Amino acid sequence: MTECGKRRIIMNRIKSVTANMILLCLLMLGALTACGTPASETAAPGETAVGEPAEETGMQGQDADEDGDEMTTWREAVDKMFEDPYGDYSETGGEIALLTDGNVEDGAYNEAVYNGVRMYALGAGVSYSYYNADPEDSESYGEQMERAAQDGAGIIVCAGYRFGEAVSRLAGVYPQTSFLLVDAVPHNAADEEEPIAENVHCILFHEEQAGYLAGYMAVWEGYRNLGFIGGAFIDVPHADPVMGYRKEEPPVLRYGYGYLQGINAAAKDLSLTDVTVNYWYADSFSADIAVREKAASWYENGTQIIFACGGGLYESVLEAAEAQDGLMIGVDVDQSRVSDRILTSAVKNIGTAVTDALDEYYAAGGWSEEDAGQVKRYGVEEGCAAIPVVDTEWRFKEIPVTHFFEIYKQIKRGDRTVSDAIDAPPQVAIMVNYE
User: Sorting pLDDT into bands at 50, 70 and 90, what band is 33?
Assistant: First the structure.
């Protein structure tokens, strides 16, 4: 078999294992043996069924690839893709350069972006590298971007607010380099949005939809006292040197405000009047004693479950949950494997979106007219906002998977609307204690 033939097989596997399987599982409503735990009963059209907990079976089906080799589980198939049999990874100088400000294999956000890059690169036969900026040094974001461009990167992938200023400043300096900016848009040092250059494409997400689904399902599961702890920057570049500048990232705001909307909707659907939410922004995205103490105090005072939204701060919330017999909701990726204290996660399929964008970029030989200087937002419609159902443990005891899919379908077809406004908290009937 030719090398091109092998590459086609790998790309076919990527498409069938990731995008097709995830989208299929997210869109089907019924007995889903491939999506976590199958439901014990199926909801009729227009109904929202809640029955006994489903039996755990996971994904056991096996398929044969074009060489006749057996493919096993979804996770095993994806892991196989990351073995890099062709040596596409390069320490520096890759055609695709990923910029992060932390460990690329952090088991959370950075790894999700990295997986999207790797999936495309390994499938298409494109070299790739990654460069780490220092989150404690604001200048390093631009320095690493320049380093990647000078190393000959054809496209630089960077994720997060802090890369937005560097992209705005350097896209014109390196017009021969293309940029994929994830979860941010170009802005200046004063945090004002700037025009998007033609060699830049931006990806945003409907995090509010994922937050809505997590909050809605938590209330349907029986929780009445909930919490939200989100991350916030305190040392934004060029902020006031004395007062600092507290910056809540838009994705965190959307997650949190969607969470409140989902909780409110479930309370309304169930005619509840006793649902309360504690809501607080930490001054960090990292594990921090202040976060642990805040979460611990909430658990001690009756909070049952906390949505931890903001990088590594979930570690501190998890410490408090384990000490106080509480539960939490993860964010961005499925964090259920971290601890059995994590009921579910509000996820955005970052890797799928990154792979999709790179595929469009290379298919067009650069950013197309539809993508150049434009923003594309991914959500339920694209299969990129949900709670985990594929290759995961369904930990809800009162709700079958079918109920989640019914709510998911209602959002997809517009029967349920989730506001993405972040200029102010949503108007809700539930009691929210903002701290």
Answer: very low
